[in-house]
Design a protein that fits this description.
289 residues, alpha/beta, 10 helices
């Protein structure tokens, strides 16, 4: 995308107070985007927004929004604030995510991994569709993971894993959901000038591994040996947000700035449509593209 245009391109990055989200926001600010970030901790959001505003080339002020993205109501409220501040949105980067070792439900009664990693993407994207349409051509970039390959499919019979929960199983299913959501979103947006792609950032050394106990120690050990830096992990996100050669590419899954085939369950269009319909039911948000 050409960020040298008279009117600066505008981007919203979720989960942007650390890790690959922070690097993504920083690099796009340096490229002349008008950047807005989303985080859960008010102090961190304020601090990071102020720091990004000092980056060379940054358009100030960098906007900071606070929201708990695991709650559908907060995502809807966030979208309303974003619409007021940024009526036009050229790039939306859905990046926020987590893995929860113990099963938790949000105050809205939804398993937290599915709520944060999938429903937040679904809700925010659909709620900001008017802003994306106002840009004429826009890009939606969803951070997924190769962890989706460990999921055999979406467990519609026990979607919230009430019977057999494990943090890893819930995470893998949510990352599969990211790809299926992207696939169905791209189909619905075909011909609108809005593209939707998703990506695997790599095995990245971030605060994602700050778990307590033995598992946390083991994961941090693996990260020290084999993980890449957040700067390396953000490259594909930045590429999909900016590269001219993918301007018209949509519905694809990328690794290391190149399209690759996701797993067979991630290419199941019937499952993608079923997941979409169920997500609409769970959030009360419909498609307005």
């Amino acid at each position: 995308m050409d960020s040298s245009a008279t009117t600066p391109l505008q981007v919203l990055v979720t989960g942007a107070t650390d890790g690959i989200g922070l690097v993504t926001a920083r690099e796009l600010a340096r490229q002349g985007f008008r950047v807005a970030i989303v985080g859960r901790n008010p102090d961190k959001v304020e601090r990071v927004a102020a720091a990004l505003s000092q980056e060379p080339g940054a358009i100030t002020p960098v906007l900071g929004f606070v929201a708990d993205l695991s709650l559908v109501a907060e995502v809807k409220a966030l979208a309303e604030r974003v619409r007021e501040a940024m009526p036009r949105l050229d790039v939306l980067v859905n990046n926020a995510g987590a893995m929860f070792l113990r099963r938790e439900e949000t105050s809205e009664g939804i398993e937290k991994t599915f709520a944060l990693n999938h429903l937040a993407y679904f809700t925010l994207t659909n709620q900001l569709m008017d802003c994306l349409r106002a840009a004429g051509t826009a890009r939606i970039v969803n951070v997924a993971s190769d962890a989706h390959r460990a999921a055999s499919g979406i467990n519609f019979d026990d979607l919230q894993l009430r019977r057999r929960y494990s943090g890893w199983r819930a995470y893998c299913q949510s990352k599969l959901a990211n790809i299926l959501f992207t696939r169905e979103l791209a189909r619905r947006l075909n011909g609108t000038g809005i593209t939707a792609n998703c990506l695997h950032p790599g095995f990245v050394r971030t605060a994602f591994f700050n778990y307590r106990g033995l598992l946390g120690t083991l994961m941090r050990g693996f990260a020290r040996v084999g993980a890449i830096s957040p700067e390396q992990g953000a490259r594909t996100t930045i590429y999909l947000a900016t590269a001219p050669e993918v301007r018209d590419r949509t519905g694809s899954y990328f690794t290391k700035c190149a399209p690759v085939e996701p797993s067979p369950p991630a290419r199941d269009d019937q499952t993608a449509r079923r997941l979409w319909d169920l997500s609409e039911e769970m959030t009360g948000v419909g498609f307005t593209g």
